[in-house]
Amino acid sequence: MITEYQILAKLDDYKLGYYCLFIDLGHVYSYLIDSRLNIFKGDDDKWAIAAERLGYNPRGSGIMLDIYYFGNCLTNLEHYNGQDINYYTVYPIEWNDFNETVDGEVLKSDAKIWNTRGRQIELSHDKQDYLNAGIEIKEYEPGEISLEEVGRLLITKHRDLFRATDEELYKSIPKELKKIFVIDEWYHRDFNEIIQPTISDEHLRTTYEFNKNLVGGEYPLDFETFASMFRQQEKSAGEYNQNQYQDNRPSSYETWQLIAKVIATGDTTLYKPTLKPNTHWTNWPDSGSM
């Protein structure tokens, strides 16, 4: 029988490859709109978690549903640069339809509908509709409504259209696993580690010479200063990662400890959190800040 410790160890060590991510609710390039956890369990100690993060990414030019996968039996994963990654992206809104109704990062004044998963949903320009939903419009220009604000209103009215379908959730989870639990809100800590490949002194020297040659030999730093600066950055990144692991890894706090209990036993009644949920978008004001 699989243990809670084994499940938590797998969550702490979630990286299947260089480009894997933990659930990043505060992602600085994506305004948070909604999130959800789906827990799966099967025979032979198999388990998986599919975490949903809905957000508006101005750089990605759309409202995107990212699905993050964790578990001990994942399959059919996406790849990048020859390595497995533990997430993929779904676009609930019809792409051309979305582009025709937006102007940069705001909704066009004459936009009326979005086709979302085959259904037409109405768009609101009424400020009171947003206020009623707890959304205070930033309105940098009179009457302007940003796209994350539109998404945050729509999720209150059409939640089912913006959540992942079972087909999407099972994309990288074996079909024989059963979905045993869904969590719509929870206490969360982002767990972001700085990726820093190990670089030898020889490699550092080669990098220095390459950069020096790029500028015709007129490089502002000598090698000793260049190497010292790099090693100091390397040390700072290591200290940051140590603090992240100490304070924010899944096994360090209640949410994932309880989820591990549920998975290990199959008893969903064991999920009795005492920490106040913080996954609502209002708790992540820095999301999308860049």
UniProtKB/TrEMBL annotation:
Superkingdom of the organism of origin: Bacteria
InterPro entries the UniProt entry points to: DUF7003 (IPR054272)
Protein name: Uncharacterized protein
Species in which this protein is naturally found: Lacibacter luteus
Lineage: Bacteria, Pseudomonadati, Bacteroidota, Chitinophagia, Chitinophagales
